Recover the amino acids of this structure.
């Protein structure tokens, strides 16, 4: 009787987990609990903002709350600011607006920021499940969901005032709705995809070139010029409308057209100079000769410096530098940065290979990585840059794991 009862209990438990709603509820709760535990274990209450990124986002958010508008001012002008020490458009604004919204409700609380970022990160786990299910099947989706619960690249950024969590959230939502553009609410899904893609571009400039890849993907998907263009317009127009207020604001302040931010020139020069070896290297660069220039003029000057070096460098050196940037960004053996990435790295590469073989189904996700590789090759390579793209690494790793188990099953 006891043996029968245990079997019945096991079947009930399996049936409970096999129901998608139950699995998703457990997935979200487990992911959130892991993230809340990390916050509890690794925050001491000493609210130190190390690094320029956190200081920038925090101070610019506080300036918004003070009614001063979006800007970041330092006492000593540096390579990012104008001669007066003020930076008005160095970074795209949505992370600062996000922080300002949290501060306005909960006060100047980093704990509140971390908890809300933990919720967004847990929601990303659900979206990863739906993306994997859309391009593969429920089995692969469950594997992806389980991996995402403990994946370091989705957890570590919640402790900091970085852009990665917010950017990653908007981007996965955009990808999910792009995959749903042929469903019954296709036009609505296209518009939502365009809006969320625009929001991602206002959080990090990575995705400014991604609409071009979407157009290529649509041509491959439909093999119909008119349908591809019409669908693309329903995505592109909302994308551009989301960016429009920021572009207008920049034009009113700087009297020039700035689609994203003025940080591009800095990233381009520190990644393309005689001393660069893949990651950013600014130790030997002479920024002082441009100290008198405005923020916008510095951006242009830095681009010219980087371009001047590339035009003078040997093609082999340029190819080597681009390769080093990509290798630096994707290097898996930095456990202090992302140990879980090293664990899934071979499965991700295998999954990418399987994705290339069935490109019609997985093309959009492949273009996400092509987008990342181009940005890294042009600017600089940093391991942190891959964190926002980790959901798609998890998707392909799950596809490979599922494929492996299926092959083993067929052998028996």
């Amino acid at each position: 009787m006891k043996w029968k009862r245990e079997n019945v209990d096991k079947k009930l438990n399996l049936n409970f987990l096999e129901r998608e709603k139950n699995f998703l509820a457990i997935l979200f709760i487990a992911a959130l609990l892991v993230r809340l535990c990390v916050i509890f274990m690794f925050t001491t209450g000493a609210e130190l903002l190390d690094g320029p990124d956190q200081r920038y986002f925090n101070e610019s958010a506080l300036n918004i709350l003070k009614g001063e508008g979006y800007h970041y001012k330092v006492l000593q002008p540096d390579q990012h600011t104008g001669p007066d020490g003020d930076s008005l458009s160095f970074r795209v604004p949505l992370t600062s607006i996000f922080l300002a919204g949290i501060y306005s409700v909960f006060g100047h609380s980093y704990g509140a920021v971390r908890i809300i970022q933990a919720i967004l990160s847990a929601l990303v786990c659900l979206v990863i499940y739906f993306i994997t299910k859309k391009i593969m099947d429920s089995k692969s989706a469950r594997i992806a969901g389980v991996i995402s619960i403990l994946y370091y690249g989705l957890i570590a950024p919640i402790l900091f005032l970085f852009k990665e969590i917010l950017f990653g959230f908007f981007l996965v939502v955009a990808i999910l709705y792009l995959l749903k553009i042929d469903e019954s609410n296709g036009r609505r899904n296209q518009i939502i995809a365009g809006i969320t893609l625009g929001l991602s571009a206002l959080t990090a400039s990575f995705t400014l070139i991604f609409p071009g890849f979407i157009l290529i993907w649509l041509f491959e998907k439909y093999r119909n010029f008119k349908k591809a263009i019409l669908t693309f317009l329903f995505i592109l127009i909302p994308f551009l409308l989301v960016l429009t207020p920021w572009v207008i604001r920049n034009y009113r302040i700087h009297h020039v057209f700035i689609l994203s931010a003025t940080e591009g020139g800095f990233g381009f020069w520190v990644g393309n100079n005689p001393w660069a070896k893949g990651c950013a290297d600014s130790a030997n660069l002479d920024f002082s000769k441009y100290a008198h220039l405005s923020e916008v003029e510095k951006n242009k000057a830095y681009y010219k410096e980087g371009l001047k070096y590339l035009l003078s460098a040997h093609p082999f050196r340029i190819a080597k530098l681009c390769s080093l940037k990509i290798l630096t960004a994707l290097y898996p053996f930095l456990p202090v940065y992302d140990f879980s990435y090293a664990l899934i790295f071979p499965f991700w590469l295998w999954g990418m290979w399987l994705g290339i073989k069935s490109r019609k189904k997985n093309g959009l996700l492949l273009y996400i990585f092509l987008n990342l590789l181009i940005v890294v090759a042009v600017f600089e390579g940093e391991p942190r840059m891959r964190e926002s793209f980790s959901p798609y690494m998890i998707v392909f790793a799950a596809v490979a794991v599922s494929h492996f188990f299926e092959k083993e099953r067929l052998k028996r």
Remarks:
- The chain has a mean pLDDT of 90.
- The first helix runs from residue 2 to 18.
